[in-house]
Design goal:
The chain is of the alpha+beta class and 296 residues long. The chain is 49% helix and 13% strand. The strands form 3 sheets. Strands 5-6-7 form a 3-stranded antiparallel β-sheet, with helices on both faces. The protein has a two-stranded antiparallel sheet with strand order 1-4. Strand 6 and strand 7 form a beta hairpin. The termini are close together. It comes from Deinococcus enclensis.
C-alpha cells in the first residue's frame, strides 16, 4: 500500500541540480555488471571534461569517481562517468521509464550554456535557441544537447567559473534557462524514481552493495536522527536560487519511504547561502517521514 504527503504542486517541473547524479552512478554500475567497465577501470580528467569547482586530478578508477560523484557531489567526476556511459543513452533510458524526468546535459554543458559561452552551438540568442529546442521533439533536444556537450569541452574550466559567476550576478540571468539545460523532474515522479534507483534494483549483489553504500555517503541526513531506519540514502543539489534534496529510507518493518524536495527561485541566491538551509530542511523532511511512517 502506498501513502504520501505533499506540499505545493508536486507535478510541476523543477530543476534537479545535482540530485540527478545517482542516475549516472547506477548506470555506470550496470555497465560494470555487463563487463563493459570494471570498478578498477581508470578514467582521466582532462581540460575537456573538467567542470566547475573541485575536481579529481590525473586518472582515477571508476569506484573513486563514483564515490566523489555522490559523497562530494564532484561535477567533474560525474561528467567523466556520464561521458563514459553516454549522455544520449542515459537520456533515452530515463525518458523511457520516467517521462517527466529529463537528463540531457553534462554539468559542464549546462553551466557553459547558462554562462553564454556556447554561441558556436546555439548562435547569438542562447535563450531563444534553447527555448525553441525545448518545445521541439525529444530527438531534437538530444541533438541540441550533443552540440552543447561537444562545444563545452572547448571551454576552459577557470573561464567557465568566472563567466558563470558574472552571469548569475548580472542582468542576463533568467530562471527560464534553468529548465532548458539542467536535469529536471517533478517531485512526484522523482520520489518514485528514487525508490527504484536507490534500491539498486537490476544490479548484481556485490555491485548493489557498493552502490547502496555509496548512496549512504550522499548529502544529507539528520545529525541525530529521530526516525529509526535500517538504511538512509540521500543526494542533494544546490545552485543559484535552487536547493534540491532526495533520498530513500528503509524502516525496520521492511517498508521504504522516498522523498523529494525541490525549491526553485528562492529569495536566497548564492549556492553557498542556499546550502545553509539544508539542515533545517532535512529536519523538516524527517518530521514528514516520521508522520508517514506512523500513518495507519
Amino acid at each position: 500500500m502506498q501513502r504520501s504527503l505533499s506540499l505545493g504542486d508536486v507535478d510541476a517541473v523543477f530543476p534537479l541540480a545535482s540530485s540527478f547524479k545517482p542516475l549516472v552512478v547506477r548506470g555506470i554500475f550496470r555497465d560494470v555488471d555487463a563487463g563493459r567497465l570494471k570498478l578498477t577501470t581508470k578514467l582521466a580528467t582532462t581540460e575537456a571534461n573538467r567542470s566547475i569547482e573541485r575536481y579529481p586530478k590525473g586518472s582515477n578508477d571508476v569506484r573513486e569517481l563514483a564515490r566523489r560523484t555522490i559523497a562530494l557531489s564532484d561535477n567533474t567526476a560525474s561528467d567523466i562517468l556520464h561521458l563514459a556511459y553516454g549522455p544520449d543513452r542515459l537520456a533515452r533510458e530515463v525518458r523511457a521509464k520516467w517521462p517527466c524526468t529529463a537528463v540531457l546535459n553534462t554539468t559542464k554543458a549546462w553551466w557553459a550554456a547558462q554562462a553564454g559561452l556556447l554561441g558556436t552551438a546555439l548562435g547569438p540568442d542562447t535563450l531563444g535557441a534553447l527555448r525553441a529546442a525545448a518545445s521541439g521533439p525529444f530527438d531534437e533536444r538530444l541533438r541540441t544537447a550533443a552540440r552543447l556537450i561537444t562545444a563545452s569541452q572547448r571551454v576552459p574550466a577557470p573561464v567557465l567559473e568566472r563567466t558563470l559567476d558574472d552571469y548569475f550576478h548580472g542582468p542576463a540571468y533568467t530562471s527560464e534557462l534553468d529548465l532548458y539545460v539542467q536535469p529536471t523532474s517533478t517531485a512526484r515522479e522523482f520520489a518514485h524514481l528514487s525508490l527504484q534507483v536507490y534500491s539498486g534494483s537490476g544490479l548484481k549483489a556485490a555491485t548493489r552493495a557498493v552502490f547502496r553504500g555509496m548512496m549512504q555517503t550522499g548529502c544529507c541526513r539528520p545529525k541525530t536522527p529521530r526516525l529509526t531506519t535500517t538504511y538512509w540514502g540521500a543526494k542533494a543539489g544546490s545552485g543559484w536560487r535552487i536547493l534540491t534534496l532526495s533520498g530513500v529510507v528503509d524502516l525496520p518493518d521492511g517498508r521504504s519511504l522516498a522523498y523529494t524536495y525541490l525549491n526553485d527561485q528562492s529569495a536566497v541566491t548564492d549556492a553557498e547561502d542556499m546550502e545553509l538551509q539544508i539542515r533545517p530542511v532535512v529536519t523538516w523532511i524527517e518530521t514528514q517521514l516520521i508522520t508517514l511512517a506512523g500513518a495507519p
